[in-house]
């Protein structure tokens, strides 16, 4: 595949957005855990904000993955399990076309974060901050490994501009 500066610029923006959201979530989660007293409303606001930042960070990672899968594979998965299938596809090599885009370790972390995002979106009044808190370190780890994997893949495929 030839260098594709516009594609990589779009992916880079997604990666940067994910990094911002995930780092902000981690910083706030650390402060919440270490911090002093907050009124019930302020604590709830902070807990929801952390969940939303994780949700948005995952969404930005998924957007970067969609861009790359569409550009390299020529299409995206479809169906009810679309989001899980997108990750599975990216983690698997396609014979004669490309190596895996992400490692199985990164894929596992993405699946865990995807599961949290789904639970958050469908909480309907039952938001459980403990799910967000346990996913903060997952998000921090996956943001780093995802960026590394995507850059290595783009380099191996000649997508990165010179």
Automatic annotation (TrEMBL):
<dbReference type="Pfam" id="PF20797">
    <property type="entry name" value="HepT-like_2"/>
</dbReference>
<protein>
    <recommendedName>
        <fullName>HepT-like domain-containing protein</fullName>
    </recommendedName>
</protein>
<feature type="domain" description="HepT-like">
    <location>
        <begin position="49"/>
        <end position="156"/>
    </location>
</feature>
<dbReference type="InterPro" id="IPR048769">
    <property type="entry name" value="HepT-like_dom"/>
</dbReference>
